């Protein structure tokens, strides 16, 4: 699977994956660089609206836990 075109400017990756490193590294390997990419809800939002959603929407479609969002 080709790396997601947004990997270098995806605010979820830049902010939250970096913040909790290494716990969410699997999101990058599975979604951003892997076969789950076609299910990424951030990408779905991009396809529908022409822009990525806010940083707190996870590839799964859930939002990051509130305590992380406040940091
Ligand atoms: S989280 Fe989704 S939109 Fe962001 S880089 Fe990974 S696959 Fe692309």
How would you describe the overall organization of this protein?
This protein is mainly α and 71 residues long. The chain has one domain. It is 44% helix and 0% strand. It is built from 4 helices and no strands. The model has no long low-confidence stretch (mean pLDDT 97). The structure holds iron/sulfur cluster. Iron/sulfur cluster binds next to helix 1, helix 2 and helix 3.
What distinguishing features does this structure have?
binds iron/sulfur cluster, mainly alpha, 71 residues, 4 helices, globular
Taking all Cα atoms into account, the compactness measure Rg is 11 Å
Number of helices: 4
Instruction: Write down the overall geometry.
Output: globular
Indicate how many domains the architecture comprises. 1
Average pLDDT number: 97
* SSE pattern: HHHH
Distance between the termini: 33 Å
The total strand number stands at 0
Bound molecules: iron/sulfur cluster
Relative strand content: under 5%
Pairing-aware structural class of the strands and helices?
mainly alpha
Roughly how much helix do the residues carry, as a percent range? 40-55%
Low-confidence stretches: none
| Main sheet attributes: strand count, strand direction, barrel closure | none
């Amino acid at each position: 699977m080709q790396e997601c075109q947004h990997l270098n400017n995806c605010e979820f990756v830049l902010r939250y994956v970096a913040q909790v490193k290494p716990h969410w590294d699997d999101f990058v390997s599975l979604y951003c660089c892997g076969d789950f990419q076609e299910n990424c809800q951030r990408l779905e939002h991009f396809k529908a609206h022409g822009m990525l959603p806010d940083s707190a929407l996870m590839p799964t479609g859930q939002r990051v836990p509130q305590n992380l969002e406040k940091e």
